[in-house]
């Protein structure tokens, strides 16, 4: 894929970028190494002030950055502005809490004495340059949720962003430059995917974090594993949205629409499989399909647009093929079900779609639908709902609608996912660890778990003098 800005609402190529040649890439890596030698010795106060200034830049440039994001990947403008604001909040959160999250840990005095030491503690030290291979769907947030904790811990960042959001990638580098980051502390690498392995293998790169597809995660993990370098992977998801009889159905329907169509349905943590108890299935399904069908599709720069285009033509083709396969095998489209790119001009549009009658013979039963397409299942019991929720290779997050404490505890115990959200939709927050199990990856971002992922937990032991 060329490194280029292509407006998905029109299909027009707005700007192309030359990838870094070997000499330029070497200069970036050398700068990262030099920057880490100095940055690792800075104080927590210095780093927190850097993050606060970066947050101020995001606030100041919110409208411009939001428009850049929308033009590059099609997110409705209001959602892009909200993403920018969320990034600023996360930077401030780590500025406020980061030092305490990786402060020295001191064992109990009895344990210290039993070890034969006069004193002992654990210090969290930065690893070095962290390479971030990031996707286009949340092109600001995905980067900041790695960069804020990594920089606060004293690491430096190298960003290999998706090839279809180069303007956003360069804008992020500019945010940290304007905030006063030391030279080489945060750099964007305009490189193709074919160069990533060589960068991972470079001795100056200490660790890798990737958010993206399962194949991309496998590729990065294989190279990093061969080099014995730490990785964090946040991959795909096919999150269940379970609705049980005690649910507030009006709230569940409203949330289901938002959970399935946020970011034009292109989110790893978007609810994708709606598992509904038979007692409430008819009403939920009818109201859900009606609300999905009423969403306004159009230019993402227009304020009244609910659903913009998919980010890439390949994404549109893949989603259309999934739905076509399901319909050909007997699924029913309660709304949507046919691509709109011809009706909408050259843009890559797909309508909000609700499918019922899904069976295990259909590809969509196991594959992730990356777009505004919902699969609705009917179940007769909580046990059946949990079994179906787990019938996927993914395990990123989950949503469950019930007010019954016993049902909630059963779901926490048995649903195979990195998160269980009750009576609301999955969302990421700086104070809560984020990540998945099974083929959704490993490791955690955000909270204390995220900042410690790329630290060396160093045991310090002082013997008698």
Automatic annotation (TrEMBL):
Keywords: NADP, Oxidoreductase. It comes from the Bacteria. Residues 3-460 form the Aldehyde dehydrogenase domain. InterPro entries: Ald_DH/histidinol_DH (IPR016161), Ald_DH_C (IPR016163), Ald_DH_N (IPR016162), Aldehyde_DH_dom (IPR015590), ALDH_GabD1-like (IPR044148), GABD/Sad-like (IPR047110). Belongs to the aldehyde dehydrogenase family. PANTHER family: SUCCINATE SEMIALDEHYDE DEHYDROGENASE [NAD(P)+] SAD. This is NADP-dependent succinic semialdehyde dehydrogenase.
């Amino acid at each position: 894929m060329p490194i280029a800005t292509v407006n998905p609402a029109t299909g027009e190529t707005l700007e192309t970028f030359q990838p870094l040649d070997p000499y330029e890439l070497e200069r970036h890596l050398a700068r990262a190494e030099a920057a880490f030698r100095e940055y690792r010795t800075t104080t927590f106060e210095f780093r927190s002030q850097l993050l606060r200034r970066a947050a101020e830049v995001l606030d100041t440039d919110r409208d411009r950055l939001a428009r850049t994001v929308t033009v590059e990947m099609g997110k409705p403008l209001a959602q892009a502005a909200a993403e920018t604001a969320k990034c600023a909040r996360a930077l401030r959160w780590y500025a406020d809490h980061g030092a305490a999250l990786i402060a020295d840990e001191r064992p109990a005095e009895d344990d210290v004495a039993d070890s034969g030491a006069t004193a002992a503690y654990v210090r969290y030290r930065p690893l070095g340059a962290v390479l971030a291979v990031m996707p286009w769907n949340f092109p600001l947030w995905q980067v900041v949720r790695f960069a804020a904790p990594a920089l606060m811990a004293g690491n430096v960042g190298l960003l290999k962003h998706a090839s279809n959001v180069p303007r956003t990638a360069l804008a992020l580098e500019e945010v940290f430059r304007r905030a006063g980051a030391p030279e080489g502390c945060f750099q964007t690498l305009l490189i193709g995917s074919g160069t990533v392995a060589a960068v991972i293998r470079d001795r100056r790169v200490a660790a890798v974090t990737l958010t993206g597809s399962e194949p991309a995660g496998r590729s990065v993990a294989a190279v990093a594993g061969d080099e014995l370098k730490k990785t964090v992977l946040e991959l795909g998801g096919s999150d269940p949205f379970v609705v049980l009889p005690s649910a507030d159905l009006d709230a569940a329907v409203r949330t289901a629409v938002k959970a399935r169509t946020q970011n034009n349905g292109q989110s790893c943590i978007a609810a994708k499989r709606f598992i509904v108890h038979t007692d409430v299935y008819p009403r939920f399904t009818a109201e859900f399909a009606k609300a999905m069908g009423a969403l306004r599709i159009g230019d993402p720069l227009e304020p009244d647009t609910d659903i913009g285009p998919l980010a890439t033509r390949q994404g549109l083709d893949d989603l259309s093929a999934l739905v076509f396969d399901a319909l050909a095998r007997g699924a029913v489209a309660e709304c949507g079900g046919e691509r709109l790119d011809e009706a909408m001009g050259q843009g890559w549009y797909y309508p909000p779609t609700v499918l019922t009658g899904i069976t295990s013979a259909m590809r969509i039963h196991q594959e992730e639908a990356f777009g505004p397409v919902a699969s609705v299942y009917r179940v007769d019991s909580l046990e059946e709902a949990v079994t179906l929720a787990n019938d996927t290779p993914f395990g990123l997050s989950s949503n469950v609608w019930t007010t019954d404490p016993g049902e909630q505890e059963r779901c926490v115990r048995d649903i195979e996912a990195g998160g269980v959200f009750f009576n609301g939709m999955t969302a990421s927050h700086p104070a809560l660890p984020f990540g998945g199990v099974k083929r959704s990856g490993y490791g955690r971002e955000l909270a204390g778990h995220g900042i410690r992922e790329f630290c060396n937990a160093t045991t310090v032991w002082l013997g008698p003098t």
